[in-house]
């Protein structure tokens, strides 16, 4: 990590500590007989499971929200096309009406063939016949345009209705998924509220021991994360954005600027660097180029859990910047804070 970036991290960390110090103290939970005698390891397993379920539900919600945004844009586009088609249909019907009136007004005219036989100047009559032919072709084109525009308007109307139905379905799905996230977070709060301050302290200590052990294993294994590779210019910009968010609260579904969830932080960090990446951790894992941990550069993304439900930015020297979970803040942590699935890079062509 460069000296400038290290100073930036330290400054942000100090600011975050000041924010935490200013926060009001939480009430000490009352002991729950159900959890009072449970082993710390068992409590930690349950708590981590609940956090994972909440994060998975959050990423599902985020994915639906992105699809809903795209569907709204599609509905708007189709509505615009339909409005233009209806205007064109109105013009075509007006032209067809004028044609019908002309045909009615000229219905008593003698035929061009008889006019040719009776003409004093046959050549002039032939020239008039060419004009009449062009008029006839123009009338045929007017009728053709009317028919084609009617078909186009009908098809666009059907597409617009289907797109709107899809939008309504996605909106309903998003509502159910929002309720799912809320319910799972309620389960987390219920478990935490049942623990004593001593149990909470023991949980934190036990989790730290697990992370320290996992970090040592990851950093000493063959193909360990790089501690020396430099970021690209875009990677450096994305990482600086993420570091500047240290201390801001985690909030599920949030993309900043005041709060973030894990993939909200990574997607906005890279957007600030001029690179658009997918919104959710699962899409980032599915769509961005995979790289081995040994090729990690600062700014690359580390994906966690078998179902790719958490993501962080690699800071360098075996550390990450991420928005951990509900109740916590954007922070710097060891890369092995969670079970690593793999790494991806938005940094384009790599030397």
How are the elements arranged and paired?
Elements: H1 3-22, H2 33-36, H3 40-105, H4 112-118, H5 122-193, H6 197-220, H7 233-244, H8 262-272, H9 281-287, E1 290-291, E2 301-304, E3 310-316, E4 319-322, E5 331-334, E6 340-344
Antiparallel strand pairs: 1-6, 2-3, 2-6, 3-4, 4-5
How would you concisely characterize the structure shown here?
Helix content is 64%, strand content 7%. It is built from 9 helices and 6 strands, in the order H-H-H-H-H-H-H-H-H-E-E-E-E-E-E.
Q: Mind explaining what this structure looks like?
A:
A hairpin with an 8-residue loop joins strand 4 (319-322) and strand 5. With 351 residues, the protein is an alpha+beta fold. Helix content is 64%, strand content 7%. Strands 1-6-2-3-4-5 form a six-stranded antiparallel beta sheet. The protein folds into two domains: 3-30 and 196-344, endopeptidase fold (from Nostoc punctiforme) (Alpha-Beta Complex), CATH 3.90.1720.10; 73-183.
Topology, number of strands: 6
Radius of gyration: 33 Å
Described by strand count, sense and barrel closure, the largest sheet is: 6 strands, antiparallel
CATH homologous superfamily of the largest domain? endopeptidase domain like (from Nostoc punctiforme)
Assembly form of the protein: single chain
Proportion of helical residues: 55-70%
Distance between the termini: 19 Å
| Domain count | 2
Uncertain regions: pLDDT < 50 for 5+ in a row?
18-29
The coarse overall form would be: globular
CATH class category name of the largest domain:
Alpha Beta
Task: Provide the succession of SSEs.
Answer: HHHHHHHHHEEEEEE
């Amino acid at each position: 990590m460069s000296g400038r970036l290290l100073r930036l991290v330290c400054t942000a960390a100090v600011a975050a500590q000041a924010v935490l110090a200013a926060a009001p103290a939480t009430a000490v939970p009352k002991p729950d007989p159900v959890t009072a005698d449970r082993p710390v390891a068992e409590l930690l397993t349950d708590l981590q499971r609940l956090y994972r379920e909440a994060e998975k539900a959050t990423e599902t919600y985020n994915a639906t929200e992105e699809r809903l945004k795209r569907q709204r844009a599609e509905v708007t586009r189709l509505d615009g096309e339909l409005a233009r088609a209806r205007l064109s249909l109105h013009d075509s019907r007006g032209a067809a009406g004028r044609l019908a009136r002309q045909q009615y007004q000229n219905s008593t005219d003698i035929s061009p063939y008889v006019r040719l036989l009776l003409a004093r100047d046959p050549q002039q009559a032939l020239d008039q016949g060419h004009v009449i032919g062009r008029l006839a072709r123009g009338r045929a084109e007017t009728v053709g345009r009317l028919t084609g525009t009617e078909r186009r308007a009908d098809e666009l109307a059907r597409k617009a209705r289907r797109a709107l139905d899809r939008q309504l379905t996605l909106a309903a799905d998003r509502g159910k998924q929002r309720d799912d996230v809320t319910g799972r977070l309620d389960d987390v709060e219920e478990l935490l509220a049942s623990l004593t301050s001593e149990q909470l302290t023991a949980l934190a200590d036990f989790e730290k021991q697990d992370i320290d052990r996992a970090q040592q294993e990851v950093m000493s294994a063959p193909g360990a994360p790089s501690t020396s590779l430099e970021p690209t210019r875009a990677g450096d910009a994305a990482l600086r954005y993420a570091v500047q968010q240290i201390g801001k609260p985690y909030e599920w579904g949030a993309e900043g600027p005041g709060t973030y969830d894990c993939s909200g932080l990574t997607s906005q960090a890279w957007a600030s660097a001029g690179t658009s990446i997918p919104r959710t951790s699962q899409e980032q894992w599915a769509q961005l180029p995979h790289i081995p941990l040994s090729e990690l550069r600062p700014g690359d993304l580390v994906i966690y859990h078998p179902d790719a439900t958490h993501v962080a930015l690699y800071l360098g020297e075996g550390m990450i910047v991420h928005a951990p979970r509900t109740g916590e803040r954007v922070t710097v942590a060891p890369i092995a804070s969670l079970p690593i699935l793999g790494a991806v890079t938005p940094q384009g062509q790599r030397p």
